[in-house]
UniProtKB/TrEMBL annotation:
InterPro entries listed in its UniProt record: Citrate_utilization_prot_B, NarG-like_sf
Alphabetized UniProt keyword annotations: Membrane, Transmembrane, Transmembrane helix
Top-level taxon: Bacteria
Name of protein: Tricarballylate utilization 4Fe-4S protein TcuB
Spans traversing the lipid bilayer: 125-145, 165-187, 248-269, 281-301, 321-340, 346-366
C-alpha cells in the first residue's frame, strides 16, 4: 500500500510533467488485466507455461506488460480447461481467448508503416487479393514475354524456368518485396522490443538467456503443456499434434528458404544456373522442405478447423486459415513443379508457384507470420527477466 506521502509526491510530479501518465488500456487489455488479477491470487496454472511465472513478478499490469505477456502466451488452451473460474463461472476467466485478442491488437499497433496495420484486421481479404495479384502478374508476364498468346501457358517449354522468366527478372521482382517484408517486420518488432524492455526489468541480453529463448523457440517448448504431453485442441485431452505440425511447418519453411539461398549461391558464386537435378543440394532441400511444409500445414488446417471455439479470437480465424492455406499452396505448387519438369503443365504451375510465393512475401509483415517474430521477442525478454531478482519477492520463479 502506498503511503499518503508517496501518493502526494507522485501527484506533484505528475502535475509538473515529470511523470508521463501510463497509456489507457483498451477494453481487451483491461479484460486481460482483470483476469490476471484473479490468476495472481489463484496461481494454480503456474507450471503450464512462461506466462504464469511472469505474472507472479507483477502486482499490476500496465499496457507494455500486457503486450509482453500476450505474446508470451502460446494459446495452448491448458489454463482454460484447468480453470475453476472459467465460464460459466461468474469470474469468466478465459486466459487463452483474452490473450489472443490483445495479441492480435499488438500486431496492428506495432505494424510498420502504421497505416498498413489495418491489413491484419481484413487479413482474409488481404491474402486473397495478394494471391490474385501475384497470379495475374506472372500469367500476364508469361504471355507478354513469350509473345505467343495464352497458349504459352499449357505447352512444353524447352528453356525450363528461366526460359519463361529470366533469372534477373525474377530477382528484380522478388528481392525488393522480400527486403520490404524484412524491413517492415524488423521495424515493427523493434518498436515492440523498445516498449516491453523496460517492463521486463530493462536488463540487457545475456548468452544464457539467449540460449534458453532459442531453445524455447526451436523446440516450441510451451506447446508441451508444461508436462510434456502436449496442449489442448478440440477438448481438454492433451495432444502433441499441434506441436508436431508447427515443427513440420516451421522447419519445412526454413528448408525451402535454405534451398533458395543455396540455389542463389550456386548461381552467383559457382556459375551454376538452375534447373538442378537430383541429388543436388537445392533440389534435396527444396523437396524435403516442400514435403514437410505441405504435411505440417495440412495438419494445422485440420487442427484449426476442430479447435475449441473458446480458445481463440474468432475474428482472427480468417488470418490463421488464410496463412495456412497460402503456405500449403506454396508448398504443393513447388512440389508439383518438381514432377512437371519438361511437361506442358510447367508454365501454368510455375505461374501458380511464383504468384503464391510473391503473395506470401508481400503479406509476411501483415499476417500470421508475425506471431513467430513477436513471440520470439517475448520469450527472449522473459528469459532475461527471470534471471533478475523478483521485484515483489512473493512468487517463485
Ligand atoms: S487460469 Fe484459472 S486456474 Fe489458472 S491461475 Fe488463472 S484463475 Fe487459477
Ligand atoms: S493458453 Fe497456454 S500458453 Fe497461454 S497462458 Fe494459458 S497455459 Fe499459458
Amino acid at each position: 500500500m502506498q503511503s499518503l506521502e508517496a501518493l502526494t509526491r507522485d501527484a506533484r510530479a505528475l502535475a509538473n510533467g515529470d511523470i508521463v501518465p501510463a497509456p489507457p488500456l483498451s477494453a481487451a487489455e483491461a479484460e486481460v488485466a482483470r483476469q490476471l488479477q484473479i490468476c495472481n491470487a489463484c496461481r494454480y496454472c503456474e507450471g503450464f507455461c512462461a506466462v504464469f511465472p511472469a505474472m507472479t513478478r507483477r502486482l499490476e499490469f500496465p499496457q507494455a506488460d500486457l503486450h509482453f505477456m500476450a505474446n508470451l502466451c502460446h494459446n495452448c488452451g491448458a489454463c482454460l480447461h484447468a480453470c475453476q473460474y472459467a465460464p460459466p463461472h461468474e469470474f469468466a476467466v478465459n486466459i487463452p481467448q483474452a490473450m489472443a485478442q490483445v495479441r492480435g491488437q499488438t500486431y496492428v499497433d506495432y505494424a510498420w508503416p502504421p497505416a498498413l496495420g489495418r491489413l491484419y484486421q481484413r487479413n482474409g481479404l488481404t491474402l486473397s487479393l495478394a494471391l490474385a495479384a501475384g497470379l495475374a502478374l506472372f500469367l500476364v508476364l508469361a504471355v507478354v514475354l513469350q509473345g505467343q498468346g495464352w497458349a504459352v501457358l499449357w505447352q512444353a517449354h524447352s528453356g525450363g524456368f528461366y526460359g519463361l522468366f529470366p533469372h534477373n527478372l525474377l530477382v528484380s521482382l522478388f528481392a525488393p518485396v522480400f527486403l520490404w517484408a524484412t524491413l517492415a517486420l524488423g521495424l515493427g518488432v523493434r518498436r515492440f522490443w523498445r516498449d516491453i524492455t523496460p517492463a521486463t526489468s530493462g536488463a540487457p541480453l545475456s548468452a544464457p538467456a539467449t540460449t534458453e529463448a532459442a531453445d524455447a523457440v526451436l523446440r516450441l517448448r510451451y506447446l508441451d503443456g508444461g508436462h510434456g504431453e502436449g496442449c489442448a485442441n478440440e477438448d481438454d485431452a492433451y495432444t502433441l499434434a499441434r506441436r508436431r505440425c508447427h515443427h513440420l511447418t516451421f522447419y519445412g519453411f526454413l528448408l525451402c528458404f535454405a534451398a533458395t539461398s543455396v540455389a542463389t549461391a550456386y548461381h552467383y558464386l559457382l556459375g551454376l544456373p538452375a534447373p538442378y537435378d537430383l541429388p543436388s543440394l537445392p533440389k534435396l532441400l527444396g523437396g524435403l522442405g516442400g514435403l514437410s511444409l505441405a504435411l505440417g500445414t495440412a495438419g494445422l488446417w485440420r487442427l484449426n478447423r476442430r479447435r475449441h471455439p473458446d480458445h481463440g479470437d474468432a475474428a482472427q480465424k480468417p488470418m490463421d486459415l488464410g496463412f495456412i492455406a497460402l503456405l500449403f499452396l506454396t508448398a504443393t505448387s513447388g512440389l508439383a513443379l518438381w514432377a512437371a519438369r519438361g511437361s506442358a503443365a510447367l508454365p501454368l504451375l510455375l505461374c501458380l508457384h511464383l504468384g503464391a510465393v510473391m503473395a506470401l512475401f508481400a503479406t509476411l509483415p501483415y499476417g500470421k507470420f508475425a506471431h513467430g517474430i513477436f513471440r520470439s521477442a517475448s520469450l527472449l525478454r522473459h528469459a532475461v527477466e527471470k534471471r533478475q531478482p523478483n521485484p515483489i519477492g512473493l512468487g517463485s520463479d
